[in-house]
Amino acid sequence: MPGAAPSRERSRTAPRKAAATVHRRSRGGAASKKGQEAVSRGGLTGYLQQSQTPLASLWFVLPLLVLHEWGVQSYATLAGEGIQYRNVAFTMVTQFLASCGATGRYLPALAVVAILISWHFARRDRWVFDTPLPGLLAGMFLESVVLAIPLVGVYFLFASARVSVMAAGEWKLMASLYLGAGVYEELVFRLGAFAVLSFLLLDLCGMSRRRGVFLVVVLSALLFAGYHLWGAAQFPYPALVFVALRGMYYGIIFHERGFGVSVGIHTAYDLIFLAIREAETGGLKLFSSPEITRSL
After folding, report:
1. How many CB atoms are located within 10 Å of the residue 20 CB?
2. How far apart (Å, rounded) are the C-alpha atoms in residues 291 and 170?
3. Cα separation of 264 and 270, whole Å?
């Protein structure tokens, strides 16, 4: 019966094929699971990479710049006296631009935009994000608030020494100034100071990257502390330590997470501090004049 042999051969090979099919499917299922895990990790990795780009920073700080200018015009300008209160870092940027022959009310804000766009071009980044922009900005906002909380804890550790060197005044005025302080102080003491110090220590002096970055963070933090304490009636040591620690924290965040998140943390801390101080003094009080005094 010649026709029976092929039938027996098929019966012997069929289980092998079925087993191979099951094996391939199981391997495919494992690969699919690994792929899903990779996508999940890629989502977080993608956020961390995209949120520190200059373009993401630009989108993140634009609302702060707009709210700062609106707040200054509404609450920090005495039209009859020709007085307008501004953050000192804003004044520093204004004076630097004026020394270059450029003047204008909104020029510092436009300079921030121009710097971030130029940085974007220099890096040759894409103009689109893999993560939807609203989700990216919401993540940066949440990250900023969460990472500002440790600074609030450090503030309470130093509170007994009265180390506050934040200006005091009517809360809407101060909130308006704080919205710009985060942007312009990070522009001067992180973006600007990091660029200059990195050039001096790493490029000119040939210092190793690890040691150079450490010194850049420390030196920029000391400059930040000196800036806050310059012209103060008192110069308490705990205040210097506290503000220097804040500067080091901002510097580490700037190095690891980029300009936008460092601005967000700086602004979040300032506004949380304002809310705490107003709560300690009996709530949000509306003073008759927007006088600013330094509290130490």
Report:
1. 10
2. 7
3. 10
